[in-house]
Amino acid sequence: MILVNARHVKNVPGRKTDVQDSEWLCRLLRSGLVSGSFIPPRNIRELRDLTRHKRKLIQSITAEKQRVEKVLEDANIKLSSIASDTFGASGKRIIEELIKGKLRAEEMAELSKGRLRQKREDLKEALVGQVREHHKFMIKASLKHIKAMEKILSDIERKIQEKIDCHYKEEYALLQTIPGVKGEASTLIAEMGVDMERFPSEDHLSSWAGMSPGNNESGGKKKPGSTTYGNKCLKTMLTEFAWVASKTKNTYLRSKYHSLVGRRGKKKALVALGHKILIMCYHILRYRCAYKELGVDYLDQRRKDKIARSYIKRLNHLGYEVILQEAA
């Protein structure tokens, strides 16, 4: 018995009743026209449940914090317009005092810490509003909900770390060497496992994850094609890793992003960078080797002559005569 993805069988012609359809599926199986889906081992499946639940909890906590900001806006409190993090150290103290209702706006502005203290005058104006009992009740309810979810989140994170330390400590340490992945390597392990023998090549893994470029060609003409359908959770995390990697300093991934973003745009460049990270993960897990940093100038060194010809052509077009000479 094998588990088959319904999307792979949908386009194969079949019959219209359940009995005939089951007979037709058996014929397809005997002919080798259907393939089994990737089913990870039990430890990976349990880890996947934990990481996906963790992600949902983080989204719920963020939504609840946004609900608090909405209530504050309704009370004409513009804290989110001044503070970059409403729930930072200063923001939490100010929200607590707003609920108590004992301090004036000037006194609450003095509770700010760090760089927010430089904006105390703006903060005084932002804290002038009408916080009614209804607003206080709604904020208290949301804060209580956030506290409960954060407690569950900490328990889940501890359970995830226990499973990683018990079964996948080596793979976790290797994946953390990739720029942008640090701290969330457990998600990669949970979604694609650690046994890369299941995937004949990195292309198969990329196609399964939904990070492969689309192939849309008709009549000898190539048309724009989106990425393939695959693991949505893994695809989302790879895109996030790509965004973090694009902000790192002096790394190959950063230079790769900037080489793509001018031609393809931010979104396509992030997907392409996520595809690069996935290929790195495949080779790291298959050969049990750490990530090797190529350096920020790796791409420039590979196409050094091409870049030089491009600049010379541009300068000649502007009316200059260029003579190249190697630096000492």
List the helices and strands and how they pair.
Layout: H1 6-10, H2 18-30, H3 42-74, H4 79-82, H5 89-100, H6 105-109, H7 120-126, H8 133-167, H9 169-175, H10 185-192, H11 202-209, E1 217-218, E2 221-222, H12 232-245, H13 252-264, H14 266-287, H15 298-302, H16 304-317
Antiparallel strand pairs: 1-2
Helix pairs in contact: 3-8, 3-10, 9-10, 11-14, 12-14, 13-14
Strand segment count: 2
Number of helices: 16
Sketch the topology as an H/E string, one letter per element. HHHHHHHHHHHEEHHHHH
- The helix/strand class is mainly alpha
Which properties best describe this structure?
Helix Hairpins, extended, 3 domains, 328 residues, mainly alpha
Brief summary of the model shown:
This protein is mainly alpha-helical. 62% of the residues lie in helices and 1% in strands.
Describe this structure in words.
- The protein is an all-alpha fold.
- It folds into 3 domains: 1-37, no CATH class; 42-167, Orthogonal Bundle (Helix Hairpins); 169-210 and 229-298, no CATH class.
- Helices cover 62% and strands 1% of the residues.
- It contains 16 helices and 2 strands.
- The protein has helices at residues 6-10, 18-30, 42-74, 79-82, 89-100, 105-109, 120-126, 133-167, 169-175, 185-192, 202-209, 232-245, 252-264, 266-287, 298-302, 304-317; strands at 217-218, 221-222.
- Strands 1-2 form a two-stranded antiparallel ribbon.
- The relative contact order is 0.08.
- The mean pLDDT is 89.
